[in-house]
Amino acid sequence: MSQTPAFAFVGLVRDPSDGHATLQDRDLLETVLQRHGAVSVDWGRKGALAVFATVLPTLNCALELVNMLSAPPSGARVGIDVPVDISDMDTAKAVAQALAQKARVGEVLVSATARAAVRPAPGIALDTHGPVEVPPAPFPVIAFRARRTGAAEPSACLCFDDYTLDPQRRTLHQDGAEVALEPLTFDLLTLLATNTDRVVPRDEIFEHLWHGRIVSDTALSSQVKALRQALGDSGRAQHSIATVHGRGFRFLRPITPQVAAVAQPAVQPDQARPLVAVLPFDNLSGDASGRVFADGIAEDILTALSKHRWIGVIARNPAFAFRGSADGLDVIAGQLGATHVVTGSLRKAGERVRVQAEAVEIRTMRRFWSDSFDLDLAQIFEFQDEICGTIAARLATDLGVSEQQRARNLPRANRGAWELYHLGMAEFYRFTADHNRRAQELLRMAIRAEPDFAEPYTRLAYAITLEMVYFEGRVSAARLDDALDLALQGLARDDRDPQGHFALGRVRLARQEYDLAIDALEHALDLNPHLALAHCGLGDSLAYEGRIDDSIRHFKRAIDLSPHDPFRWAFHSYRSLAHLFGDDPQAAARAAARAVQVPNAHYSAHANQLAALGYIGDRTRVAQARNALLRAKPGFSLDLARRRLFYLKRRNQLDRYLEGLTRGGIA
Question: How many folded domains does the chain comprise?
Answer without folding.
Answer: 5
